[in-house]
């Protein structure tokens, strides 16, 4: 299922820590990592009035510097086959283009994190990737802490697949995400299922109480199915809140190492739903965003 991964890096502390955490993906059968750095097209803006040959010389010099840094990162990924790509253009567009061109199974990148210092870190390139990617995206999350007057990234999890929080509404996307949960669950120690009923809509001729019983029955079936396949503890949390709030509430209490959630978009349809957007923005924990294809 996960054989080839795209790992974009911009050499920030966030992306370099993602490299360290990315080695956990070997447990899922990942064999190859495409290590990508995009030289932002704005890089040459200050040189717009320079001669073309001068611009080319500066870009080539920077490109050699980038390649040297990527080779250093490659050494840390010795368990994988590594392919290095350096592209020039708009970062989000290039990441999506390379993902499609390389036919990757997963994009793995920093979504940064939330803290008292930086309350809304999700955005920019990560937000565009979340909205437009045609493959699942795993966003790492880090807490920004301050020590001795400097800001540092702090990992908010131990091993990324140890404790999975699987959000489901039994939609087609959530059901297809279940296949990933079964694969990831093989290397996990616990799976928690969260189901929000704040937006529950009874079917025609069905009372709310009957609708709730139907959901509880589905939840029990899902729990038993996953337990039989994974041989790990599976817990169910049915929360009478809107989905985004319910997921964050359970996450803050249970402290998962990964939240797995479906997006509303299908295939290459752009955009993510309100719930996915809220979780990506508010979660202090890594998030696997799954889009059905």
UniProtKB/TrEMBL annotation:
InterPro entries recorded: Rossmann-like_a/b/a_fold, Universal_stress_UspA, UspA
Signal peptide: none
Pfam families (UniProt xref): Usp
Domain UspA: residue ranges: 1-140, 161-291
SUPFAM superfamilies: Adenine nucleotide alpha hydrolases-like
Family: Belongs to the universal stress protein A family.
Name under which the protein is recorded: UspA domain protein
Native organism: Ferroglobus placidus (strain DSM 10642 / AEDII12DO)
